[in-house]
């Protein structure tokens, strides 16, 4: 099973922490939708014999599209690809776009999963992040969306400057009060060249410390596990039956095609990434050329990616798979490197699977880096 990711590179305004690819000029929206449909057509041969199980609208802000535009893109996927009977179709949406009218339209469309960028239920956090929506809109849209959609995920950000543990707990409790089955939660990171990086540089903001951030994660983890969620990936918590199929497929190294500026693709052998410039993307597609650069992954790259994603997830890393896919040397190496973390109770071996413990999950990236191969091919 494979997935299709559609990148919608528009946002109403730039959030202070964001380094994704988007434009705040909506002038090219119509031309972009046309180009995205065309890219879907141009790449259909890549999925010959494959079935598409998930379609994901990410961004940017996909909810700035009209519902007809979203339907047009889904129709293009169905026209050029073999889509399973009941695919998961997710739309990332921002609260300020989710009026009752829009939610009704979306509920009547093929979209069956909403991923809503709430980030925080507190005004001061939303202002600091320069989100378009306010706290009232965050609650209102969630109330409305829950009436029409069963499969809803929200994003929440922790580790924000001045965010007390108490405020973070209130954010989690508020999210739970809506009965949603999935939460994606990320630590705020200060990315270079963002407004947030400038505020930090100018001394206007002091980022949360690593200890504070880890404490936020621990509270999140404890609270959501008690509420019946599984932490199936370091940043993703879902009730059974509500894990994101799209994201799970990425973490399990399944194939996906990403269309749109800056979208990434993976075919099992190579990774590709499209140009991250809207006008150049549209121009190139109009000439029937997909503006993509590719990198063929070496065995070492694939091993490193598998270890990195595996340790971040509930599925862990299969030692027999490492041996079969990469060779016994890799298995010996991973076990040798894992030893000290096993002694520190950050990793454990469960049958054939090497996994992070509850304590180790937050540190998964650092642990994985120690398990990476550098020179062996
Ligand atoms: S809405 Fe999302 S993609 Fe757009 S600027 Fe904000 S964080 Fe970035």
Automatic annotation (TrEMBL):
Its job: Probably acts as a heme chaperone, transferring heme to an unknown acceptor. Binds one molecule of heme per monomer, possibly covalently. Binds 1 [4Fe-4S] cluster. The cluster is coordinated with 3 cysteines and an exchangeable S-adenosyl-L-methionine.
Database matches in Pfam families: HemN_C, Radical_SAM
Homology family: Belongs to the anaerobic coproporphyrinogen-III oxidase family. HemW subfamily.
Keywords, alphabetical: 4Fe-4S, Chaperone, Cytoplasm, Heme, Iron, Iron-sulfur, Metal-binding, S-adenosyl-L-methionine
Name of the protein in question: Heme chaperone HemW
Domain Radical SAM core: 1-230
Gene source species: Maribacter dokdonensis
Subcellular location: Cytoplasm
InterPro entries: Coproporphyrinogen-III_oxidase (IPR034505), Elp3/MiaA/NifB-like_rSAM (IPR006638), HemN_C (IPR010723), HemW-like (IPR004559), rSAM (IPR007197), rSAM_horseshoe (IPR023404), rSAM_sf (IPR058240)
Listed NCBIfam families: hemN_rel
């Amino acid at each position: 099973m494979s997935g299709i990711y559609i990148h919608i590179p528009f946002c109403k305004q730039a959030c202070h922490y964001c380094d994704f690819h988007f434009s705040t000029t909506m002038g090219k929206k119509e031309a972009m939708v046309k180009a995205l449909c065309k890219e879907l057509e141009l790449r259909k041969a890549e999925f010959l014999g494959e079935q598409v199980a998930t379609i994901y609208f990410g961004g940017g802000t996909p909810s700035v599209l009209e519902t007809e535009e979203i339907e047009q893109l889904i129709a293009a996927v169905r026209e050029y690809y073999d889509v399973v009977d009941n695919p998961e179709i997710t739309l990332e949406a921002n609260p300020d776009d989710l009026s009752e009218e829009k939610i009704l339209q979306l509920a009547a469309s093929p979209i069956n999963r909403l991923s809503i960028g709430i980030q925080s239920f507190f005004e001061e956090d939303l202002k600091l992040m320069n989100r378009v929506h306010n706290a009232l809109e965050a609650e209102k849209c969630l109330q409305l969306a829950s009436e029409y959609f069963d499969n809803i995920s929200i994003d929440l950000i922790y580790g924000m400057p001045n965010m007390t543990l108490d405020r973070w707990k209130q954010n989690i409790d508020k999210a739970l009060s809506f009965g949603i089955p999935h939460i994606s939660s990320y630590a705020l990171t200060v990315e270079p060249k963002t407004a947030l990086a400038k505020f930090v540089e100018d001394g206007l903001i002091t980022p949360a410390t690593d200890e504070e951030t880890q404490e936020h994660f621990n509270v999140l983890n404890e609270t959501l596990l008690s509420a019946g969620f599984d932490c199936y990936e370091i940043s993703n918590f879902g009730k059974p039956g509500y894990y994101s199929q799209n994201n799970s497929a990425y973490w399990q190294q399944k194939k996906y095609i990403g269309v749109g500026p800056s979208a990434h693709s993976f075919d099992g052998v190579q990774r590709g990434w499209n140009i991250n410039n809207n006008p150049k993307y549209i121009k190139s597609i109009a000439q029937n050329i997909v503006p993509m650069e590719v990198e063929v992954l070496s065995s070492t790259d694939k091993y490193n990616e598998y270890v990195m994603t595996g340790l971040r997830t509930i599925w862990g890393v299969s030692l027999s798979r490492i041996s079969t896919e990469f060779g016994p040397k890799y298995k010996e190496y991973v076990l040798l490197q894992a030893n000290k973390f096993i002694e520190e109770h950050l990793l454990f071996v469960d049958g054939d699977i090497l996994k992070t413990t509850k304590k180790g999950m937050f540190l998964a990236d650092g642990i994985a880096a120690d398990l990476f191969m550098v020179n062996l091919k």
